[in-house]
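Figure 6 in text form: structure in, sequence out.
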């Protein structure tokens, strides 16, 4: 808000005799637009699990499945702890702004295997804290395992944070720390958790190393950034539209076997009917049937029904 506009509002409030403080107006002015929509109403229907760290919120979204949500950063990342009888999988480790390892320790004492839906910085932030990390066998994965400062710093700009950063967090030293791949995983691999099996499904497109996890016995599909109920980012250099199209078609074919779709941002649960509709929406964009709306410099957004895709502006026919 411009200072003159701020002063005008305070003056108007006093003239009208309204009980409003300058600090309240300033707080409203400094609140990012995306933050004003929170809390998301869909979370009211979910079972929240109390934890000590207020940076996170945890919800039990299925038996032995915990959505670990970061509502105070604009990505609204959701990582998933999937618990079996002998061990657990942590599907993504979030931003690394606060300590997700401490959160998982409150939820299970079993050994944890980290597996990333892909290796963008907002999904690997706390990888470095875990001993066992399965990575896709791609150059993109190995490069990102080296860490990054620039990507991390962009995530804590003033318009990216909602509320307070964790106590003791130092923005100046915030980086995505390097982490070590202890084993490689591939399409079709199965991970036995003890009474629960997870199948790795390679879904390149958003990134070369993007994967989904299928808990076939329980009808759960964890989709990472291949699908989530918000604008899907398909504008980065590593994006491959042809691969993405093939990947979402593969997921759509699984829809009859799925009870719940669990994406990696904003809201953790969706109906399986979203998968074939995602294919139809993306195909409409690729066919040139959807008008593009200008977004950030060099980017456009295509909206189709309740789907939207952020793409590079120069690619009018993705």
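Output sequence:
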């Amino acid at each position: 808000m411009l200072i003159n506009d701020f002063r005008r509002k305070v003056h108007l409030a006093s003239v009208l005799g309204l009980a409003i403080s300058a600090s309240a107006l300033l707080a409203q002015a400094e609140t990012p637009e995306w933050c004003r929509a929170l809390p998301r109403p869909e979370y009211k229907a979910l079972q929240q699990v109390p934890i000590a760290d207020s940076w996170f919120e945890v919800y039990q979204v299925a038996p032995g499945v915990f959505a670990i949500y970061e509502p105070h950063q604009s990505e609204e990342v959701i990582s998933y702890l999937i618990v079996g009888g002998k061990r657990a999988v942590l599907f993504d480790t979030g931003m690394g702004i606060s300590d997700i390892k401490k959160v998982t320790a409150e939820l299970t004492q079993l050994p944890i295997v980290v597996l990333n839906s892909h290796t963008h910085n907002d999904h690997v932030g706390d990888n470095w804290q875990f001993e066992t990390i399965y990575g896709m066998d791609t150059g993109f994965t190995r490069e990102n395992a080296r860490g990054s400062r620039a990507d991390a710093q962009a995530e804590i700009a003033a318009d990216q944070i909602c509320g307070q950063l964790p106590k003791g967090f130092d923005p100046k030293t915030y980086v995505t720390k390097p982490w070590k791949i202890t084993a490689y995983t591939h399409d079709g691999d199965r991970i036995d958790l003890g009474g629960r099996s997870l199948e790795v499904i390679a879904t390149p497109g958003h990134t070369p190393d993007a994967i989904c996890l299928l808990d076939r016995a329980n009808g759960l599909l964890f989709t990472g950034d291949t699908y989530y109920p918000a604008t899907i980012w398909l504008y980065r250099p590593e994006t491959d539209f042809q691969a993405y199209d093939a990947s979402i078609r593969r997921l759509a074919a699984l829809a009859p076997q799925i009870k719940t779709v669990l994406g990696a941002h904003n809201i953790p649960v969706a109906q399986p009917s979203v998968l074939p509709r995602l294919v139809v929406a993306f195909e409409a964009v690729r066919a040139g049937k959807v008008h593009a709306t200008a977004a950030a410099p060099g980017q456009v957004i295509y909206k189709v029904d309740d789907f939207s895709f952020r793409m590079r502006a120069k690619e009018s026919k993705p």
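Caption detail: The chain has a mean pLDDT of 91.
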